[in-house]
Design goal:
This protein is mainly alpha-helical. The chain is built from 21 helices and four strands. A hairpin with a 2-residue loop joins strand 3 and strand 4.
């Protein structure tokens, strides 16, 4: 049999094709197995599985592992069930993380009175303009108005902080959160049920009205739970209830996804049944390092059993939230200008090409160099701008760290966004211009919707790198160990990679293996939860673009 085939691309060897396919397949399998072995090793140490008895393994294998594997095989042949299960798990974990972060920021670090002042001057007007822009697509001033509220709102809020915070203090935490969270969320529920779930207008308004009724009606029950205050209940109702409720409603309305509800049922019933079996047979349970105490306690230097990652978790959440805002706004904005507005010819065209080359080069610069840049620009600089003396944003503060990490991943976001924008066919742009649309309307309604999945993919990968960076944080003076979470943008912080790095050099084996492994598992959970929510958003825009 001939091993050569003549095509329009030239002579093709079938043997080489088979060899290449085999090598690629083997390399993929080896990579997957190596990664799986590494993750299994880390989880083994973090969960203390070496101390568990045989009875414990057999019990949970029969009650939890086998049913979950069966569900995975079932979902494998039913893509709609797999998508629904992924959405349920992602939005549940994302809602839980969002609730914890909101409670810490709104109810612990910043008082309800301060939150209310900035809500009235910054967030409220910005959201109002955004909602108006969704209904009036021709209002080109909406984007400028939103930018103005984001830039000038904090200044206005600071000037009006006295009387507005006094009003917030008079209302109290529950009153503030009811007005600033529950009522806006009620409008969001009404919009989502009509626009996304296809419910008629009357029923969507009833669904929106049910949220404040539930918030008030459940107060007597909430008061019976000592560890949950009314403020925490209102925050959790919005931050956790909204994404989880949407995931459940979106699954219910699609009959082909109903099988996804088997996943949480299997997980809950399997866990409870496993606990019952283990208690009945008296099996030895594992002694995990990764537990509730670990994620809610401050770090310990001498006792591994008392070590916790709570301040570092909050610091990483602060950091990645600001980094995502900075990089998305500036990175995507830069990509849009370079691809859609920057001239391609003449002197300015040459300058544009030079900028593109330098952005590509910056993507390969070692991270420690960006740490030095952050140290020089955001920490050590001391310049005089008129009556204002700028002496930097402080050593190891939240703002300094977030801006430094933003510089690190900004070239990656710009390059990925440029590639996504270039992938939009020019014929679509020309068709939009032919219908009388302006350049901004073409970018907003044609280019961005079709390039957004690619932009989000690049942003997800960049943020995944950012959350694990250590070298730039060391250079700008971020603490390796901190016993309290950051108090604000100018507060000191530590991040999960920094704390894990510090534990890795402890002389005790419990720190170097058990506690470090638990820290790595926590970091992976936060990263995967963040990525899964971002992937859901990307897939949504990808389906709309197709």
């Amino acid at each position: 049999m001939a091993t050569q085939t003549q095509t329009e691309f030239g002579e093709v060897s079938r043997v080489k094709d088979i060899v290449f396919k085999t090598v690629a397949f083997v390399a993929s399998i080896v990579g997957i197995l190596a990664l799986g072995a590494l993750l299994a090793y880390v989880f083994w140490d973090a969960m203390g599985l070496d101390s568990a008895g045989v009875g414990w393994y057999l019990a949970y294998t029969a009650t939890l592992l086998v049913p979950l594997v069966g569900f995975g095989l079932y979902a494998r042949v039913r893509p709609a069930v797999a998508v629904g299960a992924f959405e349920l798990v992602s939005l549940t974990l994302g809602g839980l993380m969002l609730t914890v972060a909101a409670v810490i920021v709104l109810d612990i670090i910043a008082s309800p009175a301060i939150w209310f002042a900035y809500f009235l001057t910054v967030l409220g007007p910005t959201l109002g303009l955004f909602v108006y822009g969704q209904y009036d697509r021709g209002a080109t001033w909406v984007g400028l108005g939103m930018l103005g509220t984001v830039v000038l709102g904090p200044i206005v809020g600071t000037l009006a902080l006295g009387p507005l915070s006094g009003l917030g203090a008079m209302l109290g935490g529950p009153g503030v959160y009811f007005l600033s969270l529950v009522l806006p969320a009620s409008g969001v529920v009404a919009f989502l049920t009509q626009d996304r779930l296809g419910v008629d207008r009357r029923r969507s308004l009833l669904a929106g009205a049910a949220l404040p009724v539930l918030a008030i009606g459940a107060v007597p029950v909430v008061d019976m739970v000592p560890i949950v205050s009314r403020s925490v209940w209102l925050i959790a109702l919005v931050m956790f209830g909204l994404p989880v409720g949407f995931a459940i409603a979106n699954t219910v309305r699609q009959r082909e996804r109903w099988g996804a509800f088997a996943l949480p049922v299997i997980a809950v019933i399997g866990f409870l049944l496993g606990e019952t079996v283990v208690d009945t047979i008296g099996a030895t349970e594992p002694s995990p390092w990764f537990d509730w105490q670990f994620v809610t306690s401050p770090p310990a230097i001498t006792s591994a059993a008392e070590a916790g990652l709570y301040p570092a978790i909050i610091g990483s959440v602060f950091l990645i939230a600001l980094v995502s805002v900075f990089t998305f706004v500036f990175g995507v904005g830069t990509a849009i200008y370079l691809e859609e507005y920057a001239p391609a010819n003449g002197v300015l065209g040459t300058l544009t090409r030079i900028v593109n080359v330098n952005i590509s080069n910056l993507a390969g610069v070692p991270s420690v160099v960006y740490g030095l840049l952050g140290l020089g620009v955001f920490v050590n600089i001391n310049a005089q701008f008129g009556p204002v003396s700028y002496g930097g944003f402080g050593v190891g503060t939240v703002l300094t760290a977030s801006m430094t990490i933003s510089l690190l991943i900004l070239p990656i976001v710009v390059i990925s966004a440029q590639e996504a924008i270039r992938s939009v066919p020019d014929s679509l742009r020309q068709a939009s211009y032919g219908m009388g649309a302006t350049r901004w309307q073409t970018i907003r309604n044609v280019v961005l919707p079709r390039s957004l999945p690619g932009i989000l993919t690049g942003t997800i990968l960049a943020l995944g790198r950012a959350i694990g960076e250590t070298a730039p944080l060391i250079m700008i003076g971020v603490a390796t160990t901190k016993f309290t979470p950051p108090s604000g943008l100018f507060g000191k912080l530590t991040a999960m990679p920094m704390q894990i790095y510090a534990w890795a050099f402890q002389p005790s084996a419990d720190f170097r293996y058990g506690v470090v492994a638990a820290g790595v598992v926590t970091l992976l959970i936060v990263l995967l939860t963040m990525n899964s929510v971002a992937i859901l958003v990307r897939n949504k825009y990808q389906q709309e673009a197709n």
